[in-house]
């Protein structure tokens, strides 16, 4: 509910004046036993188990009563007016017997009081209502006590072990509460609305007692705040919900706390010893996170989706607090980022994140890269003789371990027990791997780090490589077979016979079929006179060579069709 006064209370009904009789001087406080004509008779019909405070002379009380004569005839009742009787005790505002009878009462205590005429309306009575010399019976239920010297009372019944920050003036808070009167009657509850009460503290948005009672609280703390009416809604009360002169009791649980001047806060949980690079604006990050509110309430987690959150940082793709909090992280780092709402989702909130909520992200950085990155090569070992270096077209056999930047193993040829074999520059591996294998000698060991735009990109490989993942390959080159010059699939190692067609056409019928052509080429390779490009299917190469010569596509090559490839090259190729 709102915690400011909303209207004035109507004037007291005339019947309430029945108990108001200024005698000039209040009667002295009497004992609680059976009395005489100078003492009321008091029967304590109900006394609550807890009685932290009793009525004293000078206190202000709110109580309900039923007034009857000894024969049971009712002459007045506060219940009929649906309003307590509110008055100071011991200041002559009551008949003397009631002034005495109220002293020592507890809130929720019920007393049956017999007041002799001398302590009531005496020999005069009240014309038309109370006859002269009447004994009066009052059934009294005490609802509220306070004193003008009272202050806000605070009882903390739970305080979290860690309390890094407490409420200060001008902080913005989110809390739940149950609001009751001193007798326990509930008048309002944020729990019933399933929504926190959100407000600034100490700037007049709350009743003064609440402003004071919230100061010094920790997130997670629970306290009971008791507020006298002059620090609450005073004589007027608050509409139909809160009567005038009512003491208020708020059972408060603080969920959230921030100040509009707050920036983000960062707590480093784990920082790797080896941190060669820290994230910068424009980098692309992959990270896991758990997202909670300040009181620990969970609202989201990348772990539950079994997928990292992938984003650019410093470019507005994430909330401002995360944009800032993800700067300067290392791969493998774990940190806690606390984001105030003005750097998070603001007053409106989002989804299951309430408005004006402080957010807590526990993150684990898996990897990051920049779109401008190229591959990174670190050579760990080179043999003494490292003069023959790999180049485009060479046939390579190598072992590797493939992992993510966080060390997660993806694949290993050592585990499979066989090498990985490719022709360099032929598109058989991702571009970054192709680049990383160049200018490498047999026996060399190196680590190649490949950014995703030179690896498997945003899509990754389903079930094997996550999208946008940086890859790490630990490589050992075991064998290198030199390739042919670019554009060649077969070359001669010596002079080309001037009667090449006739040599291929063994049966001399002037036509060369695929079988003759294939047999001849393989014979040249076997004798060392020719060389096929390594790493490819030999039969496929030969078939392609034959197809190139069979210009009319009739399945045979005649002398007119037969030509050597580009005569300007140093090595002739069919």
Automatic annotation (TrEMBL):
Coiled-coil ranges (or none): none
Short name of any one Pfam family annotated for the protein: FKBP_C
Gene Ontology MF terms in the entry: calcium ion binding; peptidyl-prolyl cis-trans isomerase activity
Catalytic activity of the protein: [protein]-peptidylproline (omega=180) = [protein]-peptidylproline (omega=0)
Signal sequence, renumbered to the chain: 1-26
Keyword Metal-binding: yes
Compartments where found: Endoplasmic reticulum
Record keywords, A-Z: Calcium, Endoplasmic reticulum, Glycoprotein, Isomerase, Metal-binding, Repeat, Rotamase, Signal
EC number: 5.2.1.8
The protein's name: peptidylprolyl isomerase
Organism name: Rousettus aegyptiacus (Egyptian fruit bat)
């Amino acid at each position: 509910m709102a915690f400011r006064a909303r209207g004035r209370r109507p004037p007291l009904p005339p019947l309430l004046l029945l108990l108001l009789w200024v005698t000039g001087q209040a009667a002295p406080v009497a004992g609680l036993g059976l009395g005489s004509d100078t003492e009321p008779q008091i029967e304590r019909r109900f006394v609550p188990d807890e009685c932290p405070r009793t009525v004293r002379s000078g206190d202000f009380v709110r109580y309900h009563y039923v007034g009857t004569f000894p024969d049971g005839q009712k002459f007045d009742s506060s219940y009929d007016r649906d309003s307590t009787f509110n008055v100071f005790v011991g200041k002559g505002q009551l008949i003397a017997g009631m002034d005495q009878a109220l002293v020592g009462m507890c809130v929720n205590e019920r007393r049956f009081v017999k007041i002799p005429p001398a302590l009531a309306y005496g020999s005069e009575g009240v014309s038309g209502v109370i006859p002269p010399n009447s004994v009066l019976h009052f059934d009294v239920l005490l609802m509220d006590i306070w004193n003008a010297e009272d202050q806000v009372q605070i009882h903390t019944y739970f305080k979290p072990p860690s309390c890094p920050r407490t409420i200060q003036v001008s902080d913005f808070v989110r809390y739940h509460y149950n609001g009751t009167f001193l007798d326990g009657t509930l008048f309002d509850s944020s729990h019933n609305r399933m929504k926190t009460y959100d407000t600034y503290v100490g700037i007049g948005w709350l009743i003064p007692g609440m402003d004071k009672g919230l100061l010094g609280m920790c997130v997670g703390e629970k306290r009971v705040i008791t507020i006298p009416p002059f620090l609450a809604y005073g004589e007027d009360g608050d509409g139909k919900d809160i009567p005038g002169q009512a003491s208020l009791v708020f059972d408060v649980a603080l969920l959230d706390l921030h100040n509009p001047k707050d920036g983000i806060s960062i707590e480093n949980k784990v920082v790797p010893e080896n941190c060669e690079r820290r994230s910068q604006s424009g980098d692309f990050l992959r990270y896991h996170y758990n997202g909670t509110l300040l009181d620990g309430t969970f609202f989201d987690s990348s772990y539950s989706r079994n997928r990292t959150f992938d984003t650019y940082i410093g470019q507005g793709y994430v909330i401002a607090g995360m944009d800032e909090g993800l700067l300067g992280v290392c791969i493998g780092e774990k940190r806690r980022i606390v984001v105030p709402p003005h750097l998070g989702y603001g007053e409106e909130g989002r989804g299951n994140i309430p408005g004006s909520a402080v957010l807590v992200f526990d993150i684990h950085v898996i990897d990051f890269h920049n779109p401008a990155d190229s591959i990174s090569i670190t050579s760990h070992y080179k043999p003494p003789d490292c003069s023959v270096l790999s180049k485009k077209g060479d046939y390579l056999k190598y072992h590797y371990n493939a992992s993510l930047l966080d060390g997660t193993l993806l694949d290993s040829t050592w585990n499979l027990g066989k090498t990985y074999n490719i022709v360099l520059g032929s598109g058989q591996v991702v571009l970054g791997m192709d680049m990383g294998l160049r200018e490498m000698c047999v026996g060399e060991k190196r680590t190649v780090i490949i950014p995703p735009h030179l690896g498997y990109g945003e899509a990754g490989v389903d079930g094997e490589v996550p999208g946008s993942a940086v890859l790490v390959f630990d490589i050992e080159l075991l064998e290198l077979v030199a390739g042919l010059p670019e554009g060649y699939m077969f070359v001669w190692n010596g002079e080309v016979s001037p009667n090449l067609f006739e040599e291929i056409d063994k049966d001399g019928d002037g036509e060369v079929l695929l079988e003759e052509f294939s047999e001849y080429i393989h014979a040249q390779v076997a004798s060392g006179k020719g060389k096929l490009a390594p790493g490819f299917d030999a039969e496929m190469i030969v078939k392609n060579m034959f197809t190139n010569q069979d210009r009319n596509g009739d399945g045979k090559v005649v002398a007119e069709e037969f030509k050597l490839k580009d005569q300007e090259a140093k090595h002739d190729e069919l």
